[in-house]
Amino acid sequence: MRGEVRRxxxxxxxxxxxxxxxxxxxxxxxRRFEDEVAWFLQRADQTATAQYFGIAWESAGRIAxxxxxxxxxxxxxxxxxxxxxxxxxxxxxxxxxxxxxxxTGQVVWAAEGKNAETLGKYFNSLTAAEREAIEVVTMDMxxxxxxxxxxxxxxxxxxxxxxxxxxxLSRAVDExxxxxxxxxxxxxxxxxxxxxxxxxxxxxWNLTLSEQQKLAALPKVNGxxxxxxxxxxxxxxxFQCETVQEADARWNEWKGWAxxxxxxxxxxxxxxxxDHWEGIRRFIELRITNAxxxxxxxxxxxxxxxxxxxxxxxxxxxMIKLNCAGITLTPVGHxxxxxxx
Length: 341
Hints:
By secondary structure, the chain is α/β, with parallel strands linked by helices.
């Protein structure tokens, strides 16, 4: 099949190639060919895809951007229940801010950076009505993200991710362990403490028999470290509360215990949690976490590692949207097999 593509001369914009129905604007390839390439890009890295189709590596990237632009045109990226997180990529460390719609489970927006200004760009891209429609924002305890939400959508409810809070608690336990290791002078006791690192960070139901035995001996070996483990487990029970009132009561008990514990990491953590308690306790009411965003973080890292990095963040963002924004493509070969069946 052949078609004649004419070039026209415009007095205001110069020489331009006429638009044809079988190709996207600015492309030398047909739309069906680009869809085929994009389908491969959803399943393979850019280098392998370019080699398979016999095109330049840069051409594969441009195809991805054109397909994403067309498929997402007019869809919008507003979300009533949104999750936001930053993801690191490349060396030296660079960051992207990613926004996920909790209702659709899809990435709706991504941009380079991780500060308040970056997230502010997302809110600025929305209409006033779309910003007012945002009800819930899940995030970690990032001061930058909190500032952007409070300035742009003050009516939205912030929910701090429970898994991020538990990560901070585990980090506090490990800081206590490291301090006790440095202060310990008995080689035998030091060896026992060294073997408790992973056991201390695991949940009770994930412990092996040997790890259970190590923790059982911990009260006799080091009371301070055992106290740190109990503080971590006690806070985890707060997330299992049925009502906000019960959670508040348990939190007040836990805070008093942590402040009396004489464990510096937990003294600091108790003050941090107190400053963010309103957002943490909202999990009890809404039962929503940042898990979908964290799940996409793993997929985005896989996309970046699979390509051995990207020259520019716009290329990575295009691949993220191609793979994580709900774009469905059907390759030509699959269509033929379906018709034959």
